[in-house]
Amino acid sequence: AEASKNETGGGDGVEVLKNEPYEKEDGEKGQYTHKIYRLQSKVPSFVRLLAPSSALIIHEKAWNAYPYCRTVLTNEYMKDNFLIMIETWHKPDLGEQENVHNLDSERWKQVEVIHIDIADRSQVDTKDYKPDEDPATFKSQKTGRG
C-alpha cells in the first residue's frame, strides 16, 4: 500500500477503483481491490514511442482472504494474451508443506516452488534499505509479535 501511494501522481501510478470487503458463497471472507497501474512514465521513452498507451495499463484484481490470497493481472490491449495469476497460501511452517493448492499430479509436475526469505537483505541495495520497513526487525505494537 505504501509503495502504491508513493507511485501515484500526475495521471500515472496507481488508481484504486474498488477497495471493499467481500464474502463468497463458500464462506470465504476478505478484502477485494481493483487497481489500475498506469506505467507510461515508468518505461523508457522508446517503449512509449512504440507501444500504444493502452498497452501500458495493467489492471490488478485482488482477493485478500488471509491466509489465502489471489491476484489477477490483465491488460485490456493484449486481451487473452496477457494474464498473470498469483495464488498464495500463508502457512504456519517454514515452507515444508507440498502442494498446498491441491493441484492434480499432472499440474503439480509443472510447478516450480520458489521459497522467498523476506528477511534476506542480500539483494537490497543499501540506498533502498529502510529500517522501518525491514521485516527482520519489525515488531507488531498490537500483538507484540516479531
TrEMBL record:
Write out the annotated subcellular location: Cytoplasm; Nucleus
MF terms from GO for this chain are: phosphatidylcholine binding; phosphatidylcholine transporter activity; phosphatidylinositol binding; phosphatidylinositol transfer activity
Ranges of biased composition (kind: Basic and acidic residues): 15-29, 124-133
**Which superkingdom?**
Eukaryota
Stretches assigned to the Phosphatidylinositol transfer protein N-terminal domain: 1-146
Q: Which GO terms describe its cellular component?
A: cytoplasm; nucleus
Q: Which residues form the signal peptide?
A: none
Reactions that this protein is recorded to catalyse: a 1,2-diacyl-sn-glycero-3-phospho-(1D-myo-inositol)(in) = a 1,2-diacyl-sn-glycero-3-phospho-(1D-myo-inositol)(out); a 1,2-diacyl-sn-glycero-3-phosphocholine(in) = a 1,2-diacyl-sn-glycero-3-phosphocholine(out)
The record ties this protein, via Pfam families, to: IP_trans
| Region of interest called Disordered, as start-end residue ranges on this chain | 1-29, 124-146
Q: Which InterPro entries match?
A: PI_transfer, PI_transfer_N, START-like_dom_sf
Keywords of this entry: Acetylation, Cytoplasm, Lipid transport, Lipid-binding, Nucleus, Transport
The UniProt similarity line reads:
Belongs to the PtdIns transfer protein family. PI transfer class I subfamily.
Q: What biological function has been recorded for the protein in this entry?
A: Catalyzes the transfer of phosphatidylinositol (PI) and phosphatidylcholine (PC) between membranes. Shows a preference for PI and PC containing shorter saturated or monosaturated acyl chains at the sn-1 and sn-2 positions. Preference order for PC is C16:1 > C16:0 > C18:1 > C18:0 > C20:4 and for PI is C16:1 > C16:0 > C18:1 > C18:0 > C20:4 > C20:3.
The protein depicted here goes by the name Phosphatidylinositol transfer protein alpha isoform
**Organism whose genome encodes this protein:** Culex pipiens (House mosquito)
Q: Write the lineage as a comma-separated list.
A: Eukaryota, Metazoa, Ecdysozoa, Arthropoda, Hexapoda
